[in-house]
Amino acid sequence: MADLNQTRRTERFEPSGGVAGRRRVSHIVWLLAAGFFVAIVCLVALGSPAISLRLGDQADKDYISRVRFECPDLSETEYNRRMKRQETPERYSPSEEGRDAIQGLQRNLLRILEDARLKGAAAGAIEGLSEQDRQALADYALALPEESYKDLLDFRDANILDPADYRRAADGARKIVALGDGEREVPIGRLVDIDSVDSYVTGLLQSGTPAGVHRDVAGKAAHILAGLLNPRETLKATLVHEKAITEKARDEAALSAPLVYKTVLPGEAIIMKNTVVDEQRLIEMREERKQHEATLPLAARMERLGGAALLALILLAVGAVYLHNFQRNVLISPMRFFIFAALMLAVLLAAKLIVLRGWQVYLIPISFSAMVLTIAYTPRMSLAVSWMLAAVIGLMAGMDMVIFIYLVAGSAVAAFGAAKIRRRSKIIKVGFATGLAYVVVICGESLIRGAGYDRLPVNSLAGMMNGVFVAFVVSGILPFIEKWFNITTDISLLELSDQNHPLMRRLIFSAPGTYHHSLIVGNLAEEAAAATGANALLARVGSYFHDIGKLSRPDYFIENEPVPGQKHSKLTTPMSTTIILAHTKDGAELAREYKLPSAVRAIIRQHHGTSILEYFYHEALGEFGGTAEVDEASFRYDGPRPRTKEAGIVLLADACEAASRALGDPTPKRLENMIDEIITHKMRDGQLDECAMSLTDLAKIRDSFARILSARFHMRVKYPEAPPAAKKGTEAAPDRQETSFYTRRRQFDA
Fold first, then answer.
1. Residues 238, 243, 247, 248, CA torsion sign
2. Any idea which fold 491-712 has?
């Protein structure tokens, strides 16, 4: 094992046949990759991005029409709508108060006429009039047939309005619509201003007088009666204005106005550079682009499709090379590649929808893929894939460099921030940091363009909401991310490290020796994993659970036996071997029952690899007389061998911790020699061939184990016994003999 002290090479052990490192990409992955390529080409080539200008922006160039097209003329259409609104009459509803006032006026008229008919000029109802007027009114009452009194004031067609309502109707549509049992239009000529109601009542009295009464008599009586009735003070408006109903009717009328279209010819300027964009110009630019796209010849469409395919091929080729060199497991697993491609397409589809609809481009959720890929794989992979996505989205957005920088900045912050997530609150903090990065890019864009400051708050809010909302979504679907990508996050591992986990509680009470052994193995594995760049938390949690299979028969393992060897002394060697070897398989079944993550289950199955159970193997050799009679494979664990660095570290930590307990005098030197021997033996036995562990890693693991085990078995000062006098409770003699420790302390103090 001297090579570990001298050689610090980084070459890795060659995997044995059939491992992941030598697997080829399957036909299914090739088909999925082809579909992914076609989807990207379609997303890039089909459909042009919406006009990037917004209302209030300044045009960045001259926009000249390339085709003839028609589009709505907003000014003319708005003029028509205003005219429709003006032509729509006001709405009025009948007034109960006005009707009651009319009935009171009619009753007062009947009382006056009946009194004048019966009492003549002496009637009390006409008291206060001149003698001549009283006589004229009495003669009028006698001249009228009594049955015609009630017909003198016919208010059935009376449409009395307040002065303000009357002026509104006169200045507007010159008519109103009276509501009630139905809608009826009332022209201005049939409307009565309540300020002129006296003359209106006088006219009604004259027109209601029967033909047999002299005209002069009727006219004079009408004026006298109008004065007595005082309708201006008595009557109320019979129609009340309905503002809400009127506005609704006018809105409906305005919407019914047909759109007015204008024709724009080729070569005609739509908007000139530095001109402020209004709604009309925006409509014209969008319609011009739409018509231009519709009239593109087939050759131009094929050119665009070919260009998109070429650029997409370059980007995908770069991505494939990266995955082949740094994340090959994505390419060799159809399901992993499918989930990976689905995640990419989800982000691209969202971006395409935002670009085509002309929505806020600052809402493109690229940080979603960045966070998910960091959690599932590594920040380096997340950054590489996210930047490729940013390039594709930049192509979809019309090769907009600002959008590319915006997406690159956000994905970089999200990728690096989401590394080593141990609390969900950190994901939210990463979301805020991502949103802040978005805001910085948006501010920089506004400063460069020197325009659009009025939209800066809205754009900044959109960027911040993008980062925070994506963080909340990722935090909420974290369990699904673990399931989809078959991973275990640090958050889940921290939850499993709780010693109150049911399996940990069972170990404490049913197998306390195994529990203590697992804790020490966890300390060893965590330190070694941290030194070699492996997942230290996974190594620790895997160590806690690696021996849970011993819960099936805890008393058959020496660390739990009250009297070592008592149980196995009653069993045959094959039976003892079967019980010991079964604990890895039993542990895997127990882990599946308690729904432990796949990474922890893998450590449970692999923490012995295919190692041989040497104690019982050598016992069998002595019992049956040599290797010819003993099948070595029967004394080996089923495996598989460790396939991850964490599983390999747990294998070594488990062996070293168990062996350290058997050392009679565990000095640091003896511990180091023991660790060297175990690592060398495991390496020669091929147990580390598949876990991608270098000689440098093994040297670091050896140093970590030696440091921790030496601290565990550190020497302690032997405390001196009390003198005989002190034991009996009497005062010690003043000339007591000093211990060597006491003497050295006195010499040191001197």
1. negative
2. Hypothetical protein af1432 (1.10.3210)
